[in-house]
Description:
The chain is α+β, with helices and mostly antiparallel strands. 47% of the residues lie in helices and 18% in strands. The chain has helices at residues 2-5, 13-55, 76-80, 134-153, 158-170; strands at 56-63, 83-90, 96-103, 112-118, 123-124. A five-stranded antiparallel beta sheet has the order 3-2-1-4-5. Strand 2 (83-90) and strand 3 (96-103) form a beta hairpin. The longest helix is centred in the first third of the chain and has 43 residues, at 13-55. The mean pLDDT is 78.
Amino acid sequence: MLWRLRRNPLRRRSQAWIGLGLLLAALAATPAAMFLVGDAAYHPYTRTAQHQAETRHRTTAVLLEDARRHPEPGSAEAEKTRYPTKVRFTDPNGHTHTATTDVQPALPKGSTIRLWAGTDGKITDPPLSVAPNPPSGLAALLVLHTPGFMDATSTRSPSAARNQFLESLMNCRPLWPDGSTR
């Protein structure tokens, strides 16, 4: 154990300062890089969300046929299953469109459902939300900084962690008794 405490003659004192400087530079540059990446991703998604909000609308559709019944009604699978069914809906310009969409099982003909449609008369997904999501940015900041912080403040060296792992392996008992054929 004492041999670990002596100074390494091949390592210069300046190397420790360089390592500390690089660690501090990485910690300082990470928030700026995260801001630039987030800003670069935010603007295109905002434009896409605004375009989708302008070109998509929520409308009511009427089923033109009975939706298929699920083989196991009332099961957990039946709640999540959707079946393709023909529907009729009207766009904001007053034009009537017929399309196929996925609906809950066992809906009778003439039932109404709410769906999203585009200006071209096709059924689409809901538009993206423009609302920012700060908690996800905070989580990313914590995930990026925590490993570096833990490495910088760790009191155990990698070799000590490896030795502890090897000791735990040596103390494990075998999964089968001695003398068994395997």
